[in-house]
């Protein structure tokens, strides 16, 4: 079910045991070949596909479309919220959901820059609402084993606007992919312990702006991206999401 497509009366009549999903995304640069809406469209895509699989057993909230993207602000068009602004927005939405009687909330994240504040949010919300069950899932993390097998571009190839995000956009909105501008990212090497991508995390956190990480805005290699790969990524992520929602549904 889609939260804002229901009436107030219909929301009131729902079983409050149903898990509620809040998609969290970003509006920011994605290299020269992908639109600013990439993270939002990917988050909405996974929400829609999850709803198709279990329409009566999940409740999808409107997406938080602007996230924490200060590290992308060197590139035109990027929008960003301060961590406390983003955190307040998510907390207020979740508090509204809890006020209406729902106790199982999943934050569905499609932007790397939201992960830090996302962890803080589930700890703050969990502490403030001990009778609730709250989780955050980031799409590439919950399907990591399958995605590692699917990855063709190797270490550093599935970063920002790389092989996986481009494959998803070729599936979701191929008309928005500037195919003639697809080229490998200009990944900048720093320290071995700071190297990583979406699937292979660094040993330690080291802050850099995206322009410092890659002057052309693409971190990774989108040249091996395909629509078919986007379909497989979707299947793997939805399989994992369905299990998470199903597990939440079983909690008494």
Automatic annotation (TrEMBL):
<keyword id="KW-0862">Zinc</keyword>
<dbReference type="InterPro" id="IPR024087">
    <property type="entry name" value="Creatininase-like_sf"/>
</dbReference>
<dbReference type="InterPro" id="IPR003785">
    <property type="entry name" value="Creatininase/forma_Hydrolase"/>
</dbReference>
<comment type="similarity">
    <text>Belongs to the creatininase superfamily.</text>
</comment>
<protein>
    <submittedName>
        <fullName>Creatininase family protein</fullName>
    </submittedName>
</protein>
<keyword id="KW-0479">Metal-binding</keyword>
<dbReference type="Pfam" id="PF02633">
    <property type="entry name" value="Creatininase"/>
</dbReference>
<keyword id="KW-0378">Hydrolase</keyword>
């Amino acid at each position: 079910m889609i939260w804002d497509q229901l009436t107030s009366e219909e929301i009131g009549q729902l079983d409050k045991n149903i898990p509620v999903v809040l998609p969290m995304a970003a509006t920011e640069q994605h290299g020269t070949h992908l639109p600013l809406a990439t993270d939002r469209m990917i988050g909405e895509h996974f929400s829609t596909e999850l709803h198709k699989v279990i329409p009566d057993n999940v409740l999808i909230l409107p997406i938080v479309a602007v996230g924490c993207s200060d590290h992308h602000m060197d590139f035109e068009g990027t929008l960003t919220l301060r961590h406390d602004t983003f955190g307040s927005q998510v907390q207020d939405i979740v508090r509204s959901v809890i006020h209406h009687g729902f106790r199982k909330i999943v934050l569905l994240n499609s932007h790397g820059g939201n992960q830090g504040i996302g962890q803080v949010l589930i700890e703050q919300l969990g502490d403030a609402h001990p009778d609730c069950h709250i989780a955050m899932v980031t799409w590439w993390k919950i399907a990591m084993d399958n995605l590692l097998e699917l990855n063709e571009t190797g270490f550093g190839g599935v970063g920002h606007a790389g092989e996986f995000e481009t494959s998803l956009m070729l599936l979701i909105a191929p008309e928005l992919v500037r195919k003639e501008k697809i080229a490998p990212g200009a990944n900048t090497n720093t320290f071995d312990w700071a190297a990583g991508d979406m699937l292979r995390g660094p040993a330690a956190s080291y802050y850099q702006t995206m322009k410092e990480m890659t002057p052309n805005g693409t971190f990774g290699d989108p040249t091996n991206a395909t629509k078919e790969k986007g379909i497989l990524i979707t299947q793997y992520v939805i399989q994992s999401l369905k299990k998470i929602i199903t597990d939440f549904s079983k909690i008494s």
